[in-house]
Amino acid sequence: MKDSFFRSMTWLHTWVGLLVCWVLLLVFFAGTLSYYRYEMTLWSKPELHKNVIQQYENINVASELTRAQNYLSAQAPDARDWRINFPTDRKPYMSYGWQTQPEEGQRRGKFEEHIAPIEGDTLITNVRESKGGHFFYRLHFDLHYMPAKIARWIVGFCTMFMLVALISGIVIHKRIFKDFFSFRRNKGSRSWLDAHNVSSVLALPYHLMITYTGLITLMMMYMPWGVMTAYDGDFKSFRKELSPSRVQVQPVGIEAQTVALSLLLPDVERIFKDSTIKQVVINNPSDKNSQVNFYRDTGETVTDRRIAVVFNGTTGELTNHGIEPDSGAQDTYDTLIALHTGRFAEPLLRALFFISGFLGCAMITTGTLLWAVKIRQKQQKQIQQGAKASFGLRLVEGLNLTFIVGLPFATAAFFYANRLLPTEMLNRAQWEVNCFFIALAAMGLLACINRSRNAWRIALAVTGSLLIAIPVLNAFTSNSHLFGNIAMQQWPLVGFDLMAVIMGFALFFARVKLVSKSTVITKNVTPKRRAHNETAVKEGV
């Protein structure tokens, strides 16, 4: 404890933020991109840019169910399940998929998905292998290259630090509303502090919500004792009671004809009323113990629950009307998860979530840059006398360059790899991911060699150029381009290209500010002071 409560909270805010800030930046950055993961996935598969994008209102549901059932019966008669996906606003195409039987020692089988075109009967099967936006979604809580459970514990630990940093930050900001309207340019560490305050306060409700709900998403893993006590550790029984419609039946090995799906449609429409069908899942097709599940498109409803209308797969008997036990705790949990994922958000609200997410990145970035600037100012006298900067300062400055510029650079590398790697390449999707981390490691190598302002300018210029050129890349490597997509009103593809361009120009703006800042530092000062400032400019940001 320090000599006052305020100083103690300041110390706590600084160190709980600094110790995990780069992991948090990765989580915030990848999570923010995940708000548009379906749009990114669509962009990453240019084979789907023509003759597949359609709206639910323009299809005949009954005929599509019949067509899908016939196709799946021919292509995957022995599959573990069949999946018929109808167009939605986020995933605007019709697809048929299945899961193969899992091999020995595996929990799940392999998933296959074929795309139904608007015109023609031949389904599109030669879609390139790519994780697309789903990579960023998994990255923000699974971290890749490590067991998922360990990664989620690491993310949970860092998230708790984030929550403590937010609360302590509110406590120490005595003038929180006044600071929100204060931004002093070209004032060194004061400018960084103002930028940190503005990015923090502007989206403070979002920061608190996304951090707390992030912990809630995995609370059963972090705090399993309630289930262990009430159900003697039997999590399957807990999930069965919590969500009866999602309990999967097991095959009995007796072959039987699966009911025609189109015959079940009247009952589904009566239950769904004005809601549309999002997905149909047939468990154990062609087995006597098969089951048909219809899921509604919840659209803009604040919920993440998937409640199915369930039929017996052979007799067509309605076994679940899509009604589950009402629970205040479950409803609260569901609402919090929905707030975190934002799947309910319509375009404007989703854009606000996206902007708030990047303000979170700015909050973390300005915080760690502020620390580095202040420590370098304290050590400047020793550095001028020939001493090296402390190891802690050099480490922080290197990690800053690695992650602040490296994450956008790695993202650009991921999407360039998506278009430039051979389409028939073995483990192609994994190599896209590998390119992401190779690019991040390359930026880390640069940070080990050179962390000067000039290195930042070069890295920002290269990354900005790559992002701005993404629409050009798309035009040369697909059968669509930005202006054609605008004319055809294919807004998911247009939005991706524009997002890349905006991010690229933002990085160029940051580069320009670095140049102008160094000009301000060396202008209208004495020769002695100019020499002092030039040393500071060469050493770091």
List keywords for this structure.
541 residues, alpha+beta, 7-stranded antiparallel sheet, 21 helices, 7 strands, globular, disordered C terminus
Summarize the structure.
The chain has 541 residues and is α+β, with helices and mostly antiparallel strands. It is built from 21 helices and seven strands.
Describe this structure in words.
This protein is α+β, with helices and mostly antiparallel strands. It is built from 21 helices and seven strands. It has helices at residues 5-33, 37-43, 61-75, 133-142, 148-172, 176-180, 189-202, 204-217, 219-222, 225-230, 235-242, 265-272, 328-341, 347-384, 391-420, 428-449, 453-468, 470-477, 482-487, 491-521, 527-539; strands at 81-85, 94-99, 111-116, 277-283, 291-296, 308-312, 318-320. A seven-stranded antiparallel beta sheet has the order 3-2-1-4-5-6-7, with helices on one face. A hairpin with a 7-residue loop joins strand 4 (277-283) and strand 5. Residues 520-525 and 532-539 have low confidence and may be disordered.
